[in-house]
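Researcher: Before we compare anything, I want clean individual predictions. No alignment, no superposition, just each chain on its own. First chain goes here; please echo the sequence and then give the C-alpha cells.
Model: Echoing the first chain and its structure:
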Amino acid sequence: MVDHGEIQQALSARIDGEPTGLDDAVVDAHVANCAQCKAYWDKALSLSQTLAFVDVDGGMAPPKDLTDSIMAGVEPEWRRFARRRHMALLLGRLGLVALGLWTLVWALITVVQSGPFLGTTTANGVLDPVADPHTGALLLQAASVQFGFALALLLCAWRPSQIPGVTMIAGSVFAFTLGFAVRDYLILGDADNWGDMGVLFLSCVVLVWTWIADRGGELRRMWRTLNAQPA
C-alpha cells in the first residue's frame, strides 16, 4: 500500500515529465479519494503553470503574469510590515514628544526651585538664612541641561535620524546618575534621584524603540544578509 509521500513524489515527477515509479491508475485513484494529496496536486499544478517558461523567439522567457503572481504573494506581507513599522514609529515619536514636554516642565520646576537659593539678602538688607548661591547656580546648570535634553528629544521626534547621537548622550547621563544614586544609597542609605533615573531610562528605551522602528527595514535586511537569507 502506497503512502502519501510516495503519491506526492509521483505527482511531482508527473508534473516534471519524469517517470513516476507508480501506475498512473493507482496514483489517480489515490488522489481521487485523498483530500491531502488532492490539495497537494492542485497546488503543485498551479505553481508549475505559474512558473512555466515559454518559448519566445527561439529562447526561453518567464510567463507574462509571473511578476503579478510574485507581487500578489509579496505585497500583502510588505503591507503588513509597513503598517507595523508606521504604527511603531508613530508610538515612538509620540513618546518622545511626551518625554520632551515633561522634561521641559521638569526644567521649569528646577528653575523655580533655584529662586530661593539665589537671593542673598532679604528686603531689609539682611542675609537670607536659606540663601545659597552655589546651590542655586547648580540648580540653574541642571535646568539648562534639562532644557537641552528636552529639545534633543523633540528634535528626535521630528528627525529620527538624530536618535543615535542623542541616545549615546542619554545613556551616558543615565549611567552617571545611576552611579551617584548607588553611591548615595550605600553611604547614606537613600537616594533622592530615582525619578531622574526613571525619566532618563524611559527616554533611552523610547529612543531605541523609535530608532528601530525607523530603521527596521534596513536592520531586517542586514540581519538576513548576515544569516545568508537574502530578502
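Researcher: Okay. Second chain, same rules.
Model: Second chain and its structure:
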Amino acid sequence: MITVKNTLADVVRDYPQTIPFFNELHLDYCCGGGIPLEEAVKNTDLDAEKVVADLNEFIAAHSAKTGSQQESLERFKNLSIPDMLQDLEATHHVDERKYMAEIETDLNKILLVHFVHHGELLTRLHHLYGTLKTELEEHFAREERLVFPLMRSYPQPNLEVLTLIQNLEKDHSAAGDIIKEIESLTDHFTAPADACATFKRTYQLLEEFINDVFVHIFKENSIVFPEYAEKAPSQEELDRQVEVTLEQEAGSNSNTCGYCESENGEEKSPVLFECGNCGALYCNDCGETGCPSCGASFSHAHPLEYSGSSWNPNQD
C-alpha cells in the first residue's frame, strides 16, 4: 500500500505502470523523484491523501503491468549494469537524438510561420529547446565516451567514477529545470487554438520526447547509478583513496610503498605496483591479494622497477 511517505521514484521503481498516472498530474518522478509524495504535491492544487488514494486504485486496476513501457522497465531492472548501460545507449540515446533532430526542424518552421501571432511564445520556446538539446547532446557524449566506459572497466566504483556520476546527476537536474520551464510555457503542450497541423505535431513530439527523457533519467538516477554505487568500497576505503591521491599530488608517495614505507624495494621487494583503479603504490608483500586500498586485482596494477635512484615503469 502506497502512503504519502513513499517517494515518487520508489513508487515507479516498484510499479512502473504508474508513469502515466504521474505524467497526467505533472509530478516529477525522475529528477525530483527522491522526495515523498506529500512533499511532491506541495505548491500545487493537489491533495496528498487523495493522490495516494487514487494512486492505490490505479495500481490495483493496472496490476498486470502490461504495456511496452512497463514491460521495458521490468526487463531493464533485471539486467546487469553493463547491459543496462548498453540498453540506455541503444534505446534512449538513439531515440532522443532522432526526436531532437525532428523537433528542431519543425520548431524552426513554426517559429517563422507563426512569428507574427505567437512570436514571444515561440522565441522563448526555441531558446529553451535549443539549450536543452545542447545540454543533452553533450551529456550523452560524456556518458558514452567517458563515464559508461569507466563503469564497465571498474565494476567496483572508485572515487573518480562516483564523482563523475554525481556530475551526471547534476546534468539531469539542470535538464529537469529546463523541461519544467518548457512545460509551463506551453501549458503542458497545449497548442494555441489557431495552431496549424505542424504546430500541433511539434507540441506532440515535444511531449513524447520529454516523456522519454523522464524515463531515461529515472532509469539512471533511480536504478543504474544507485545499484552501481552499492558496489563501492566502504567510506574508510574511499577516504584512503583520497589520502593516496593527495600524497601523490604532493610528491610524497612517488617512490615508496604506501603501506610499509619501503623506499628502495630492498627491504621488501624489487618491484612496486601502481594500482590502476585508485593509484595507490604498494610493494609485492603488501599487496599479495591485490591493492590494499581498494582491493583491485593485480590485473589493474602497473609494475614499477627500482633503477637505483627512482621507480620507473617496467618495460617488460
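Researcher: What stands out in the second chain?
Model: Residues 115-153 form the longest helix (39 residues). Additionally, The chain has three domains: 8-70, 79-235, 257-306.
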